[in-house]
Specification:
It is built from 13 helices and 22 strands. About 50% of the residues are buried. By secondary structure, the protein is of the alpha/beta class. Bound molecules: 1-deoxynojirimycin.
């Protein structure tokens, strides 16, 4: 592993969604030993680090983003010894490991929340969460039967649930910006602050290289919890400047303290925030020199396949992040959004969180989507800064649309009464071997059961890794070639200089000795003279076909 304090500035970080990566036991849910056995696939892809979505003790009401014990592994995924094995193997392969931290809320099964339910209103136990009296008709308990404010859960429905007090009568309400099983902490409480510093220390002392911070824009709420009507279409929040539950100024002091803590470790570890904050100039406040190291660039993720829009978001990102000395980051897919080969075939795509399903009015063209996705990825991997990949995108996997209602697990689906399909379509276990039970997601040989927690489409066999490895032109080989060339030519640390041109559908820039040309339009454009390093699809005679990106060396 290269010994540099600044590895995160240029790193390509591969997101592993543990329940869907590799299952070593055959129970249909991926696990840590499964990941360890397959880490070489990530190393040979050319990634620098792995980000693991949550594997902590959890009732799994939101796929592990509802944590009941922050310092232990859920038996579904293994135990602390299996985590240590994973970490050791990753380091042996030169991969750093970032773990997910979920500080906005715990599970309702966390001992602190159980204690809060058992305790009385006004008690120190309740003060760790956001319990409030209701409005409306005040009953014998002195609390109203209407939620304390009008906030809605990100997953649909009210953001407040009323509890039953110890005497059996309806009582106070608690805030949950997500599912009812995910009560929000009160971050003004010093006990909560101290608790999370200990959680950070626990994993840092175990050797992790950093943290991905869930809902990093949500921890602090506006005083008085005022009513708020969000703009239509917003989901994970942050889109509106005035939202009282997102992007409150007080959150920055928390990250300053965390930064001081991680900077005390050698080499320093990295903090990356999941902050759905717009515009980029505001998001940059999360990555000032004494705060987080990086934050995801969701504005980039949400940019359509359009040359002018892409150029604007690249310029805006470089300016905003560069303005505070932070690296820009780039991402096209993760476990919360429609996989980008499908998204780029939808104009416009549904809002984040709505997802796709059999009754959606959309019919994405898989061929067009994959061509655009490959071109978009090759464009992204040439940009200076750090890039995030989501497991399976290196196979070109599309979103799974035809998941039966009964098999859907995302709380969004149930909480919206099926109006939003949610995020299951991005989370289906990935195919390793075309001709194997569960497409090789499960254990090999006699232990294979074919089980998979979400149904895998049979069509995914054609995307399986074994059918792509070593096959020129496959999406897997495209990713490998791109990551190798990115490293060899130092593109992550490069400086982008746009090249002039008069085709509005073409984006061209130089970074170091590499020239990148993306034809975002449908019609072929001239291919500049030079040595082709990587192309996202077949090139014509002297032309770059539509929806194709190419990297060239020595362009005159
Ligand atoms: C963001 C995570 O990425 C998502 O999967 C989760 O549901 C919410 N935060 C709540 O923790």
């Amino acid at each position: 592993m290269p010994e540099t304090n600044d590895w995160w500035r240029t790193a390509v970080i591969y997101q592993v969604y543990p329940r869907s990566f590799a299952d070593s036991t055959g129970d249909g849910v991926g696990d840590l030993d499964g990941i360890t056995a397959r880490l070489d696939a990530i190393a040979s892809l050319g990634a620098d680090a792995v980000w693991l979505s949550p594997f902590y003790v959890s009732p799994q009401h939101d796929a592990g983003y509802d944590v009941a014990d922050y310092t232990d592994v859920d038996p579904l995924f293994g135990d602390l010894a299996s985590f240590d094995r994973l970490l050791a193997r990753a380091h042996e392969l030169g991969l750093r490991v970032i773990v997910d931290l979920v500080p906005n809320h715990s599970s309702s099964e966390h001992p602190w929340f159980r204690a809060a339910l058992a305790a009385a209103p006004g008690s120190p136990e309740r003060a760790r969460y956001l319990f409030r009296d209701g409005r409306g008709l005040v009953d014998a308990n002195g609390t109203g039967d209407v939620p304390p404010n009008d906030w809605q859960s990100v997953f649909g429905g009210p953001a407040w649930t009323r509890v039953v007090e110890a005497d059996g009568r309806p009582g106070q309400w608690y805030l949950h910006l997500f599912d009812t099983s995910q009560p929000d902490f009160d971050w003004s409480n010093g006990e909560v602050q101290a608790f999370f510093l200990d959680v950070l220390r626990f994993w840092l002392d175990r050797g992790v290289d950093g943290f991905r911070i869930d809902v990093a824009h949500g921890l602090v709420k506006a005083p008085g919890l005022p009513d708020y009507t969000p703009p239509a279409g917003g989901s994970m929040g942050g889109d509106a400047a005035s939202a009282p539950m997102w992007a409150q100024p007080g959150v920055h002091e928390i990250y300053r303290e965390w930064r001081r803590l991680v900077d005390g470790y050698q080499p320093p570890r990295a903090l990356v925030g999941e902050a759905w904050v717009q515009p980029l100039s505001k998001l940059a406040n999360w990555v000032r020199p004494d705060e987080l190291h990086q934050t995801f660039n969701f504005e980039y993720l949400e940019t359509p396949w359009d040359a002018a829009a892409l150029r604007a978001v690249v310029d805006g990102s470089l300016a905003a992040f560069g303005g505070v000395g932070a690296p820009a980051t780039w991402v096209l897919s993760n476990h919360d959004v429609i996989r980008h080969p499908t998204r780029f075939a939808l104009v416009p795509p549904p809002p984040q969180g709505e997802g796709l399903g059999p009754r959606s009015p959309h019919h994405p063209d898989e061929v067009v989507g994959l061509r655009r996705a490959r071109a978009a990825t090759l464009f992204m991997l040439a940009l200076p800064g750090s890039a995030y990949l989501f497991q399976g995108e290196e196979l070109g996997l599309p979103e799974v649309i035809d998941i039966p209602d009964a098999a859907r697990q995302d709380p969004t689906f149930a909480r919206t009464g099926g109006a939003s399909y949610g995020r299951d379509g991005a989370r289906v276990p990935i195919p390793w071997t075309a001709d194997a039970p569960a497409q090789g997601f499960g254990p090999p040989g006699a232990a294979a059961t074919g089980a998979s927690w979400l149904p895998q489409p049979t069509t995914w066999a054609s995307y399986a890794r074994d059918g792509q490895a070593g096959v020129p032109g496959s999406t897997l080989e495209l990713y490998r070639a791109a990551l190798a060339a990115r490293r060899a030519h130092g593109l992550g640390a490069g400086a982008l200089a746009w090249l002039p041109g008069d085709d509005p559908h073409v984006l061209a820039f130089r970074s170091g000795d590499v020239t990148v040309v993306a034809n975002v339009g449908a019609r072929p454009v001239p291919l500049p003279a030079g040595e082709v390093l990587v192309a996202s699809g077949p090139l014509g005679e002297g032309v770059i076909p539509g929806d194709t990106t190419v990297w060239l060396l020595r362009v005159e």
